Amino acid sequence: MLSSALYHYPIVRYRSNGVELWNPIHRKWFKNRPEERIRLRVIEYLLQECQLSHNRIGPEFTVDLANQTKGRIDLVCFDMNYQAHCLVECKQVNVPLNEQVAQQIAKYHLSLPSPYLLVTNGRVDAWFQRTSKGIVYLESLPDEYKSTREVDRDVQYWVDRGFVYPYIPASLHDLVCTVCSRLYVDLQSPPIYLDFDDIPSEFMLENYYLISSVGDEEPQTRIAFAMNGKGNTQSLDVILSENGVSTKLLKIDLLALFNQESEHATLYSETGQRQVDITSMSPLDDEQWMSQLGEFLMKA
Asked: pTM for the whole thing?
């Protein structure tokens, strides 16, 4: 089934050496690693939608295994009596949830029995339950881990997660929240975290993107959209990818666009960079901005 953590994102901060992720259970900052992102997204879901207490979630829980070895479970959820209730194994998003992964968490379960097991790669969840007949696969979420409340995603929520510039003017709060909701709470197309080896690091483009496919013919063409609160302004980044290679980047300064400055958007391509005018397809006042910006980038 689709992961419950699909629309949850870790709290971040930016340092000269990269991005760090906040773990609300350990109350510490960690390096921005793929499995850490998945673990924190699951924690966000458990805290915000299931309303589990911080004290009932144990990240990186150590257990004794056979042959006098030790294992580390990504997450353990405890019941009200602080007995293990659910073991969670987190994998990178591109790791399939196959039998090998299931055997790994089953090995942990022998040392720390629990009523439920969850294996997730952040996009797909596989839930299992211990029964008198053994471990069985579940077709739906256990009642104990179903959402019990809707998350309040106000402007501070998006600031904390790096999508919105911390000093965004109050007059833009509603607008940036609307754009973020469209990109990051889209039930039809879950966002994907992207790294860019072929793009200079100073662009700070590593982010969660909403990706749209364009056309059915090869080479495969995709448009990726992300809100970016890094640096000293608020940008909307739009990337054109052709046959798996990023070929164009449109970086829109939403603050400059809001202030009606002429230099509000820069187009980067293999031929160099130039200022462009995207006023007519601005997300500030045009509901069709996503499709229009995508078409513009393909033709530019």
From this structure: 0.90
